[in-house]
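Subject: Interface between my chains keeps coming out wrong

I've been trying for a while to get a sensible model of this assembly. When I model each chain on its own everything looks fine, but I need the whole thing in one frame so I can look at the contacts. Pasting all components below, labels as-is. Any help appreciated, I'm running out of ideas.
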Amino acid sequence: MVAVTGAVILYPVVRFLRPRPATTSGAMEKKAPFSLKELKVDAEGKWPSPFDFGGKPCLVIRTPDGTVRAFNAICTHLDCTVGFRPEESDIFCPCHNGVYDLSGRVVSGPPPRALEEYKVDLRGPKREEIVVSRTS
Amino acid sequence: MSPAPANPLPPDAPLRSGVVAYLRERLGLDSVEALAEKKHVPVHRETIFYYLGGMALFLFGIQIATGILLSLYYKPSPDQAFESVRAIMTEIDFGWLMRSIHSWSANLIIGVLFLHLLTTYMMRAYRGPREFTWITGCILLGIFMAFGFSGYLLPWNELAFSATRVGTEIVGVVPWIGDELLLLARGGENVTGDTLARFYALHVVILPIVTFGLLGIHLFLVQKHGMSVPDRVVRRQGSFEAVPNMRFIPDFLLRDMVGWFVALGFLAVLGALFPWELGEKANPFGSTPEGIKPEWYFLFMFQLLKLIPGHVLGLEGKMLGVLACGAAGLVVLLVPFLDRGETPGRARMVFNLLAAAAVTFFIAMTAWGFFDKLQFQLALGGLLFAGVLALSVAALERGAPLRRLVILLSVLSSLVCVGMLAWGLRG
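Reply #2:
Try treating it as a single job with all components included. I did that and got this:
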């Protein structure tokens, strides 16, 4: 009797505490809020900030040979948001000093896995628009 | 017809004593008085450590008072949290003082609790029948760290946002139930407004209620079992009864209050000279700014997580770090059941050694996390040297346990210094 009463009270409470399901998942495509021309260090010395891509920050970088790449900017170690360091030519997480190369692979520090890479398409008449997509 | 009062007042009694007698009868003040009369505090070399619990209690009172005041203006939503704290700091009269005192006191309380834990440990006051006093105390320390962690997010600034992401991700590392815990802590997959609402509820409702309950048990047990006296003091005096003591009210309480008064002044000075920073508003999608650090009492764990590589022996490094910290916490919690020896001897040596190693590790990792490499070496060397020097001077005329601790700390700090030097030269 006690167990049944307890379960009847607890079940809705536990269900209540469980958050709503994530709003977005699966395949999606999004245009970056900056153009290819703007993909460079600005006057303050900052690289374009990651943008919201399905609830996760998306970092767009440009390798020295001009290739544009996009990554899920969440560090695989403990969830900080990584940033691109053009001078060092690497992707860096300042929380625990994790370093990734420009393909998103771990170079040094504690991250256990590579960054998730997204597909990049250049569209528009001058191929200036950066469109990031993921398949699933 | 109602029965007549037990002690009818004489018609010519002065008003004051009349009121006192009236309240005494109705509120049962006799038993409170008897309790206060009965309570005594032993007087010996380590009596000063008895003040730490009272100091923590006083700082908790400060937290309640300033916390209530801050809650009158604070708005727990991502759109308004940062702006409301900024308004508290810049627009509300003395808002800067209230917030700064709240933040400083939060840090001091953790420091005092660490010392309270360490001194209780060194005096071996955790042994029977005080096991549950120790356990409730340890849980309270954990709760106050949770207070610190949940309160840290509330201003919704960049630092807080990153710290919360890392801190909640650490919860997610726990084997088997990590994912569920992460969802429960964040209120979703990411740190969002839902997280802020949960942390606010935790900070101002859930944790205070739990604290009041546990603190009640902790204080009741302290009353019930009285103050623990170190074995050495009892041996020297011949028996526990022979140890000199003072009355709790008013002698000990007045001394307590001197400390509280000094603490209040210290907080006001800290708040006025070093107002707590607000920083930049959190940008959930921006890159984490460089130089990010948690509060000092989480720095040792932060540094540990920096040092452990991605994979160790087939396990994820971060899981190993989190499990190690959890295991260390469990050992601290279970100390009363591990050390049951009545007489000094090898067991005690081992426990002192472990404590010295743990404290050295904590200080070294905290300093390492706080300072950059070269600065760190200089700071750590200076800190350890100054600490050992201070302890040595203080311990010159002291008894065995403290002296042994000093010797151990000296040896360990020397080893750390030599190691750091070698590491620095290599770099």
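Reply #3:
Confirming on my end. Chain B touches chain A at residues 162, 165-166, 168-170, 183-184, 186-190, 194, 283-292, 302, 305-311, 316-318 (CB under 8 Å).
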